[in-house]
Design goal:
Helix content: 25-40%
Number of domains: 1
Structural class: alpha+beta
Radius of gyration: 16 Å
Largest sheet: 6 strands, antiparallel
Oligomer: single chain
Number of helices: 8
Length: about 200
């Protein structure tokens, strides 16, 4: 695994920001041939520095409508320990103070992940729901395999060769990812990189 791909998910090890870190990985994997050294350095800095990541996240949130921010708030509150989470407090910095000094955790609905890819990186995507087969070059939404309601719990990036990238690690496939993380996940939808956006996730 290259040095850059080994660090792009670093901050997701501590904080729940997989919607952002997997998007950064998707951007790198699809545009690395176009990136000059200074652009790669900025990407690494954003992916590894709490303040730079926070700056990027807040800039993106400021581009969203009130309705889109409300979707994020509702979704984030579905996670344990975030039942009273407030996006207004998050954007003002008070939510991080309550959780911990540098906690960046925020849960992105799939449609918002697609909007981030498009507005930040000019990357279009198509949403495929279901889990009949793995789709490469995709951000994959995962649920716990034992969850009958299939609630979204985590995002990973899967390359064209179906290698899994998550938490600054590379896994040969989803089975190896599950075996190594102690969690049994199952895919519920794919946000696949495409030349032109065809559909937004409706989840």
């Amino acid at each position: 695994m290259s040095m850059i791909t080994s660090v792009l998910g670093t901050l997701n090890k501590k904080d729940g920001i997989c919607g952002f870190t997997t998007s950064i990985m998707a951007y790198y994997k699809n545009r690395k041939g176009e990136l000059k050294n200074d652009a790669r350095d900025r990407l690494i800095a954003t992916a590894t520095d709490v303040e730079k990541m926070k700056y990027m996240i807040l800039n993106f949130l400021n581009t969203l409508t009130n309705a889109e921010r409300e979707e994020i708030e509702i979704f984030t509150r579905t996670f344990e320990n975030f039942k009273n989470w407030s996006i207004d407090k998050y954007m003002s910095g008070k939510e991080q103070e309550k959780q911990s000094k540098e906690n960046l955790s925020i849960a992105l609905p799939p449609k918002i992940v697609q909007l981030f890819l498009e507005t930040k990186f000019n990357i279009s995507s198509t949403c495929h729901q279901g889990a009949n087969s793995l789709v490469g070059n995709s951000i994959v939404g995962l649920a716990y395999a034992t969850d009958t309601e299939k609630n979204l719990k985590h995002y990973i990036y899967i390359s064209e060769k179906l290698k899994v990238y998550s938490w600054a690690r590379k896994f040969d496939n989803l089975t190896v990812f599950n075996d190594n993380t102690g969690n049994r996940y199952t895919p519920i939808f794919f946000i696949t990189i495409s030349p032109k956006r065809q559909s937004l996730c409706a989840i």
